[in-house]
């Protein structure tokens, strides 16, 4: 990764340009920066123009036209994120390539009372983890004017509340699994042989009576063990149950990842380049691309906020987007990931705090079911 040095004066001017651009969305002229530092010694209009030219040569500012103001590049936004999220890091050196990763310090600027109230009011009536995650995508889209995303954990330990099988057609059965956390998972199973209604009812009753409140990942292991130990007594019954499970009736990961997305229209509202917007939307429409994006950048085992500026490693069309995400947990178990995906011109400090606040609300608004 290439690096460049930034002097204290250049850092001061660059920060002012970035914050003016975030506030207005317009290219920033040297006079606008000079107005910010009207009473600061050593920062005349001529000095600021020279500093801006130097920042442009360093790849931190770009200029669409000779007479136009300057616009921060992705590298500039990476530098800005580094300053507001890691104040203890050495200042004055920045990388010009690749995504910027940062963790929000605990002493960041707190959310306003008004914003906290807005978030908490939006979660009124939520009683399950599914409702929490679905509502999260809406809330984060609302407060960020970007894309709100929540991904239910595919590896979290799910506990069986109830399972039901319905025969759809020859060789096809619908399995509906309800977990103790309130998630409803359904899957169409393509079976190797026909199952009668009685066999399906018997299999569901056996699972519900024998494995109610068991972690789903343990059920399949236990069934395999019982098949081996009690093959003679339970051969027909357990063979039926084993095939239903093997075909995916109790699968909670992979293609069953539950993804909630809201706020696509927010990106439409702020993006001027329609051809570029079309490519962004195509990249974001793929569910698996979003799932991979959140999985790659947000560590589900740690409840910290991650900021990734420039998502071009995921897709070239997403190079002008930023991801701000965090895992969300309940009683030490991962519920999933919540995130904002928005243009790089976003109110970073507020959105970082909003994502953190929403991620931690799960512990307060959800109760761990009694076993």
From TrEMBL:
A GO biological process this protein is involved in? negative regulation of DNA-templated transcription
Record keywords? Coiled coil, Repressor, Stress response, Transcription, Transcription regulation
User: Care to name a GO molecular-function term for this sequence?
Assistant: DNA binding
Q: Does the keyword Cell division apply?
A: no
**Pfam families, per database record:** HrcA, WHD_HrcA
Residue span(s) of domain Winged helix-turn-helix transcription repressor HrcA DNA-binding: 7-78
Q: Where is the Heat-inducible transcription repressor HrcA C-terminal domain?
A: 131-352
Stretches of the chain forming a coiled coil according to its record: 224-287
- Family according to the record: Belongs to the HrcA family.
What does the UniProt record say this protein does? Negative regulator of class I heat shock genes (grpE-dnaK-dnaJ and groELS operons). Prevents heat-shock induction of these operons.
Give the protein name, as stated in the record.
Answer: Heat-inducible transcription repressor HrcA
